[in-house]
Amino acid sequence: MTRENHDPYAEIDQAFFADGYRLAASNLEDNLTRDSLLAHLKTQYSVIDSLLEAFQHRVESSGSHIDCRRGCSWCCHQQVLVMPAEMLLIADYIRTNFDDEAKESILSRAIEKDEKVQSLTAERALQVKIPCPLLQDGSCSVYAVRPMACRIYLSSDLNSCLQEFHQPEKPDVYPQLFDFPLHAGRMMNSGLIHYLKEKGISVHENRLEKILRLLLENPDKGSNWLSGSDDFGEGHEQVEEIVRLREKA
Ligand code: SF4
This protein's superkingdom (predicted)? Predict the structure, then answer.
């Protein structure tokens, strides 16, 4: 391999993919049910949270810092991609912890965002800034069970987030994100997705509000999905293009 072709994250990606796969196999091999999958997801989140804590210490001891703070929500206005299991966990949390009025309000915000974004091109979807339906008074209302994408999105510079928020159409303006957490979390999720696919479960990542609205409108969709139906794949061409454009950026 030439020096130019060397991917500095290839080994890290491989290691975290293998970890995600192995953890799924050890937790789910003899018992793949809705409950065991959601328990597994919580374990995976606690693994990544511990890793992020250690990462934060390393960043601070090297004289740098993570600029993210609870209540800072500039990044909660973009397209958040999740897998269905993550939204099952969130939908259960909402059903258990929120009253009817709050549930209705989340559902109506999810429908509103989904309907605004679903007809856009991927390029345009990456530019529009619409609050996540789970954002409440500037904070995440499901913080304890927020998806992987939100846990690993760590910025070294709030100003770069603000610039991107206010000038989303500028192709060379990006938040200054730490790469390591992004790779670690995404690849752990990929290992889990690979494991579930081997078990015959169709796993399409989709926009958070799309899966959320489907699950809140019809809770049976979660069980149907685990039994092999493909209810959460709608609009996956747009999502695949969003992923491609983000990787290219
Ligand atoms: S789930 Fe929570 S942290 Fe993630 S985008 Fe929505 S409000 Fe923000």
Answer: Bacteria
In ligand 1, which atom is closest to the CA atom of 150? 4
Residue 12 pLDDT greater than 80, yes or no? yes
For the chain, what is the radius of gyration of the CA atoms?
Answer: 18
Phi, psi of 155 (to 5 degrees): -105, 145
State the pLDDT at residue 172.
85
Contact between residue 85 and residue 210 where contact means Cβ atoms under 8 Å apart: no
pLDDT in tens, 153-171: 999 999 999 999 999 998 7
Of 70, 86, 141, 146, best ligand 1 pocket probe by most atoms within 8 Å of the beta carbon: 146
Output the pTM of the full model. 0.94
Q: What is the 3-state secondary structure (H, E, C) of the chain?
A: CCCCCCCCCHHHHHHHHHHHHHHHHHHHCCCCCHHHHHHHHHHHHHHHHHHHHHHHHHHHHCCCCCCCCCCCCHHHHCCCEECHHHHHHHHHHHHHHCCHHHHHHHHHHHHHHHHHHCCCCHHHHCCCCCCCCCEECCEECCHHHCCHHHHCCCECCHHHHHHHHHCCCCCCCCCCECHHHHHHHHHHHHHHHHHHHHCCCCCCCEEHHHHHHHHHHCCHHHHHHHCCCCCCCCCHHHHHHHHHHHHHC
Could you report the per-residue pLDDT of 163-200, keeping only the tens digit for each? Answer: 999 999 987 899 999 999 999 999 999 999 999 999 99
In this predicted structure, which of 93-102, 182-191, 223-232 has the lowest mean pLDDT?
223-232
What's the confidence (pLDDT) of residue 4? 52
